[in-house]
Amino acid sequence: MLSSQLIERPCRCLLIGNYGVGNIGDEALKAYFLGAFPEIEWTVVSAAPERGNEVPRLPFGLRSFFRPWMRTLLAIARSDAVVFGGGSLFTDSESVFACVLWWWHALVCRIFRKRLLMAFQGVGPFRTSCGKRLARSTFRSAAFVSVRDSASLRGVQSWNLRTTPVLTFDPVFAYFATRKPLPSSKKILSIIPRGNSNDAFFTEFGIALKQTFHEVRILLMQPSALECSIAEKIKAATSTPSVIVSLLSAEQLLEEISMSSQVISQRYHGALAALAVGIPVTIVPQTSSDKLWELREMQHDPEGLWELDALAKKGEEGLRRAMIH
């Protein structure tokens, strides 16, 4: 039952995620939350706040203390609930810093006695016990938990949560699936690397190059210095005409995928886009139990793949109920 306070005004929710860092997948997730729940009055925590409804991350380092983070504290105080929205926020596969950062935000929200809602989360893998402990502490304090893959579900089920976790799927999939392949006279190989792409990724690239392509397009979903360096390494490894494309939006990602003949991806939303559009894709996991590994397993079950939209809707309705409770 809605309280009289929530009937008088829209429900206010703070949305926390890896937004504002130039990652196309995370920006697509942010757009999903803002569009799928128009009844919610959102404030977004971003690394690079731009719009009036965006506030900076809480201070976590010397330079960040000089940002207007008091606005963030005010937004937390005014919120009815805090949503950690999608993505793999709690993993230390690249750095334990990520786990510390999001645990810190959750801790401050808990100090303000706000309900934590963990939505469409990919959890792990973990290299360190510290990262895992911080994730467990945060999820155990949450009033609602939904995870986007069965590996994450198995992980959080062992943490004695205060709520039953919901198995859902990445909600961006339905948006990607509205696109169809574009006819092209050119045979194009699209490569989607990470800043820490491993030997397995380059092995798959070498295998693909045994075929004949007119062009290799290297798509950067988060064009950091490391990712740009990997892109240059890929470009130097082939005599096929190649171009590096720094993606600016999910729409541009879909356009590039749609005109591809084949895709090799070590980024989750790049692989997800190829699967949704129906382009042949080689998915290269970083570990044997990460989100890319599970997505690759789904690849072999086309009927099951299209049932994922129903799972995403289940997660959406569960979150909606949790926000207005």
N-to-C SSE series? Answer: HEHEEHEHEHEHEHEHEHEHEHEHHH
CATH class value of the largest domain: Alpha Beta
Mean pLDDT: 92
Radius of gyration: 20 Å
**CATH 4th-level superfamily of the largest domain:** Glycogen Phosphorylase B
Outline type: globular
The total count of strands amounts to 12
Q: What's the domain count?
A: 2
Based on the structure given, which CATH architecture of the largest domain is correct? 3-Layer(aba) Sandwich
Strand residue percentage: 15-25%
| Sheet of most strands | 7 strands, parallel
What does this structure look like?
By secondary structure, the chain is of the alpha/beta class. The protein has two domains: 179 residues, Glycogen Phosphorylase B (Rossmann fold), CATH 3.40.50; 110 residues, HUPs (Rossmann fold), CATH 3.40.50.620. The protein is 42% helix and 18% strand. The protein contains 14 helices and twelve strands. The protein has a seven-stranded parallel beta sheet with strand order 3-2-1-4-5-6-7, with helices on both faces. The chain has a five-stranded parallel beta sheet with strand order 10-9-8-11-12, sandwiched between helices. Helix 4 packs parallel to helix 5 and helix 10 crosses helix 11.
